[in-house]
Amino acid sequence: MDFITAIKTALTKYFDFNGRARRSEYWWFALCNAIIGCIPYVQVVSFLLIIPGLAVAVRRLHDTGRSGWWLLLALVPLVQLILIWWYIQDSEAGTNKWGANPKA
């Protein structure tokens, strides 16, 4: 998935916390948020991207076979590294309880 497709997918699934998201979708969207957050006077847009950012993070956890509730680990300093490790991992092969593998 390329940069533009990842951003479009994340924004069209604005409130969709169901399903699965590929690594590329998550990381391209995270990069877009980081770039927007660094630009002065455009940081308001970054605030508007909180919900789709949470949604894509939950879908990414689903893709690795974990519940979206694990996202609460982000509230604990240094434990956030576990989340990053899970985001880096490859998709769970085949279909899991959150849907079909998005790579297929």
Overview of the structural elements:
The chain is an all-alpha fold and 104 residues long. The protein contains 5 helices and no strands. The radius of gyration is 13 Å and the shape is globular.
SSE topology:
Blueprint: H1 3-12, H2 23-38, H3 43-48, H4 50-63, H5 80-88
Poorly predicted runs of 5 or more residues: none
Going by helix content, strand content and strand pairing, the class is mainly alpha
**What is the CA–CA distance across the termini?**
13 Å
**What profile does the largest beta sheet have?**
none
Count of DSSP-assigned helices: 5
Percentage of residues in DSSP E strands: under 5%
List keywords for this structure.
104 residues; 5 helices; mainly alpha
In short:
The protein has helices spanning 3-12, 23-38, 43-48, 50-63, 80-88. It has 104 residues and is an all-alpha fold. Helix 1 crosses helix 2 and helix 2 runs antiparallel to helix 4 (50-63).
